[in-house]
Amino acid sequence: NNPMIDLGPFGGTFTSASGVNDSGQIVGYTDLPTGLERAYLYQNHTMTDLGTLGGTRAGAVGFNATGHIVGWSFTATPLIHAFLYDNNTMTDLGTLGGHRSTANAINASGQITGSAYTVAEDEHAFLYSNGIMTDLGSFGGPHSSGFDINDAGEITGYAYDSDGNSFAFLYSNGNMINLGVLP
Fold first, then answer.
1. pLDDT of res. 123
2. What pLDDT, on the 0 to 100 scale, is given for residue 82?
3. DSSP 8-state class, residue 13
4. Of 52, 68, 133, which is closest to residue 95 (Cα–Cα)?
5. Which one of 80, 105, 132, 141 is CB 3.0 to 4.6 Å from 62, fit for a cystine?
6. 123: nearest Cα among 152, 71, 82
7. Residue by residue, what is the 3-state secondary structure of 63-102?
């Protein structure tokens, strides 16, 4: 019953919202006058720049009800790494041995999913829990990504097989389950 609210950019030209929680907090990314993207938290009619992992760009993708935020940020080297933002601190979640990662979702327990590159430079879905990033693999192909995680730690996303076909998956109890395709 409320009108659309213009969150406004940090002096740039665009703002993108990635999520909203039950408290009305919003996360996403916006640009600075320089054109560089920055992750933000919008609450109480104020947009807060979350900073970066030492690089020039960042984007907030998801968060949970307690305000823990996840996304991606350039590092100083510059590589793109997944981050967790908590108590005004952005923490680098690392990778699966490769050069890049991004976090897409976090549940109430603080478990995180997204995708990260391996040493072989394959991109795989991951589960980040208790400080450890676990490779969820794929269906034999080089790519997979986790998009969402529920409070039971179950993850949904997509994964490729060795023939280059992409399938939806459910990761539950340590197993990646192929959900198939519509008939």
1. 97
2. 98
3. S
4. 133
5. 105
6. 82
7. ECCCCCEEEEEEECCCCEEEEEEECCEEEEEECEEEEEEE
Query: What count of other Cβ atoms lies within 10 Å of the Cβ of residue 18?
Result: 19
Q: Which pair of structure tokens corresponds to residue 120?
A: 């072989």
Report the alpha-carbon distance of residue 49 to residue 40 in Å, rounded. Answer: 5
- Residues whose CB falls within 8 Å of the CB of residue 4, separated by 6 or more in sequence, listed in order: none
Instruction: Count the residues in the chain.
Output: 183
Q: Which two tokens stand for residue 94?
A: 């690392």
Report yes or no: 100 and 125 within 8 Å, Cβ to Cβ: no
Give the end-to-end CA distance of the chain in Å, rounded to a whole number: 40
pLDDT over 70, % of the chain: 92
Indicate the residue type of 165.
N
Question: Is residue 9 very low, low, confident or very high in pLDDT (cuts 50, 70, 90)?
Answer: low
Q: Which long-range contacts (CB under 8 A, 24 or more apart) does 142-145 make?
A: 143/115, 144/115, 144/169, 144/176, 145/104, 145/114, 145/115
Amino acid at 13: T
Does residue 61 contact residue 55 with C-beta atoms inside 8 Å?
no
